[in-house]
Amino acid sequence: MEEMVEQVELLLEKQDDTQLQEYLNNLNISDVEELIGELPEHGPKFIETLSLNRSVNVFRILEFPVQERIIKKLSAQTLEDLINELPPDDRTALFSELHGDAVQKLIQKLSRENREEALKLLGYEEESVGRLMTPDYIAVKRTWDVSRVLSHIRRYGKNSETIDVIYVIDEHGVLLDDIRIREILLVKPETKVSELMDGRLISLSASDPQEEAINIFRMNNRTALPVVDNSDVLLGIVTVDDILWIANEEYTEDIQKIGGTEALDEPYLDINLFKLVKKRVGWLIILFLGEMLTATAMGYFGDEISKVVVLAYFIPLIISSGGNSGSQASTLIIQAMALGEVTITDWWRVMRRELLSGLMLGVCLGVIGFLRIAAWSMFSTIYGPHWMLVGFTVGASLIGIVLWGSLSGSMLPLLLKRLGADPATSSAPFVATLVDVTGLIIYFTIAVIFMHGILL
Questions:
Q1: Taking a C-beta distance cutoff of 8 angstroms, is the pair 191, 145 a contact?
Q2: 1-123 has which CATH code?
Q3: β-pair type (175-180, 165-169)
């Protein structure tokens, strides 16, 4: 990459646009994307210099903030050509991210046919499959023979998003089946399309949420899936590259939410500082107010702490163990839900597993905690003559708190999903805060039970 950057900088310095164009056109589009990342101020120049087809292919794989910066600096003619040549699904994705006035200006640059297409796609819900689909596909009739299908592909295939799959429709446009291109290529020219149909059709609805489309692609080995309306009329197709893009965005958003912040919607280094603070401060305030309940809980057990000061030594240990187990459980369940491995109806199975695993994890930590106190008591009197009682209190508390952390961390995402909220918002910090407060109550309650009449 360094060598590429040096070569391009030399050509830019010489202002040799002809050689620059030749050099860029010979690179992979991924290399040009990296060059734009390394030399962002020259991004518009690269797009202007590339041939139209290659500039479109480079532009469509750029992150939105980079796309936005580039279109602001392109010449009017290049921008018009670029927007009109973008595949419908990529164009819709770009328009969905831009502000309304910018979208309006760009729509005016579209040809009449592209404008009607763009407005139609933008009419679907923002997170629906309809926003992802492209109307560029190959459709044939069941009565055609393979010879006619191949002629149709040669005539219209160039403008299709993919020709890996051919779609069979009736005279009303209703989707009947899909056929892989290899099946068409390997039979005799006089073979009828109806003879190749097997009825194993998988389709998406234009109103389906994009998350559902991701799961369907994940479960089926397809490069593209057809999109239909409520009457099963074929509207378009969704290709796997768009699904991978959306899946990456969904994954990024979930990770950010799990970390206790709102989704940034922009690369970290590109987002405005005040906007970044705004995205983070809400959750921090909520978590801070939640942690204040920890002080309330400790104040409630103030007498016990004053009588048995040694109990205070283990508060950080108790709090962190419960929070860690809760964070582990919530992260595992959120990921399983995102992959479709766990649904709301599986709540009892999840609870049973977390009861057993939480109990075993708690026993492991409880035994280690007890042994730690026993080992220290062999060489020190820090825990006093009743060190064994202290050890049993800490050990039993760890079992209860880790068990509670595992249960709350696993059940909270399912509860939020049941209420219609985003499970990712049951972030690790949120679960940790919840378990911190309840963990102290469990700890001191067990201490009162174990030490009543002896130390308390």
A1: yes
A2: 1.25.60.10
A3: antiparallel
